[in-house]
Amino acid sequence: MRKKIVAANWKMNLDLTEGAELVNDIFNGSPQLTEHKIVVIAPPFIHLTHTGAQLVGMNHVHLGAQNCYSEASGAYTGEISAAMLKSAEVEYVIIGHSERREYFHEDDAMLAKKVNLALANGLKVIFCCGEPLAIRDANDQNAYVESQLIAGLFHLPVTALTDITIAYEPIWAIGTGRTATSAQAQDMHAHIRTVLGNKYGDTVAADTSILYGGSCKPSNAAELFACPDVDGGLIGGASLKAAEFLGIVAAMSNA
Ligand code: PGA
User: Fold this and answer.
1) For atom 2 of ligand 1, which residue has the closest CA?
2) With a threshold of 0.90, does the pTM exceed it?
3) So where are the chain's domains?
4) How far is the CA of 241 from the centre of ligand 1 (A)?
5) At what angle are helices 16-28 and 48-55 packed, to 10 degrees?
6) Going along the chain, which residue ranges are E strands?
């Protein structure tokens, strides 16, 4: 049975005090979670040990990171390795976010190396894909996303797929207030599941969680999460306020 997941991607927001308060407020909001309905919190690197300590008493809330580097160790000033994340008790790492692809020029080959290092170090990967507006306008989104999955993941053996979650994040919906409609999300998620099934078989496809990201908020989360192939969300802006984030978590736990 695949998990439902709401993952918070704080991006480059919140200092240590603000982050600790947010996690505290989420804890006090008593989100209804189970083994199959979980939350992941991915703060900036500097928060990880603090946030990890806060999460110790919170059942089914897992620590995530927003990135890791594509080499195992060495002279890469300013970078953080997958092994370091593991040693900080991080469980999930986001790889391939469109902001990394665009602003930091992370290409498919680099992302595939990151995926390999994350998995080799025992991390679970939230692999992001999603098309820019011009591709959507040309109605080429299915082929575009498929090529991202092939380039980033399809070198993996089938056994590795248990540690992969996919996040579909149309770039035109990220931080823009313009959410994909639930029909657009469902169509793409079903396509991603078909693509996974063709490569890895129907069981793997059925067991892989596929999250939606892009201006997800309490007012649209329930409709998005009601779609049969939408297994939760990767949340940016709305993850920075406890009440909004808890509203989205509630939509997932009621779905
Ligand atoms: P958003 O970001 O919720 O602010 O649109 C989502 C993301 O980039 O993960």
Assistant:
1) 236
2) yes
3) 4-254
4) 13
5) 20
6) 4-9, 37-42, 61-65, 92-95, 124-129, 164-168, 210-213, 232-235
In this model, does residue 169 exceed pLDDT 90? yes
Name the pairing type of β-strands 164-168 and 210-213. parallel
Tokens found for residue 12: 């480059």
**Ligand 1 mean position, distance from CA 244 (Å):** 13
Three-class secondary structure of residue 70 per DSSP? coil
Name every residue whose Cβ is closer than 8 Å to that of residue 97 and which is 6 or more positions away in sequence. 9, 66, 67, 128, 169
The CA–CA distances, whole Å, from 123 to 30, 63, 117, 149 equal 26, 11, 9, 19
pLDDT at 95: 98
Encode pLDDT of 122-161 as tens digits.
Answer: 999 999 999 999 999 999 999 999 999 999 999 999 999 9
Q: Please say whether the beta carbons of 92 and 119 come within 8 A.
A: no
Residue 231 tokens read as: 């297994």
Q: Which residues line ligand 1 (CB under 6 A)?
A: 9, 169, 174-175, 213-216, 234-238
Spell out the CATH class of 4-254: alpha beta
In three-state secondary structure terms, 223 is helix
CA–centroid distance, residue 130 to ligand 1 (Å): 12
Query: Closest Cα to residue 121, out of 77, 95, 91, 152?
Result: 91
Active site residues: 97, 169
Nearest-CA residue for atom 3 of ligand 1: 236
pLDDT the model gives residue 180:
87
Given a contact cutoff of 8 angstroms between Cβ atoms, the answer to whether 140 and 177 are in contact is no
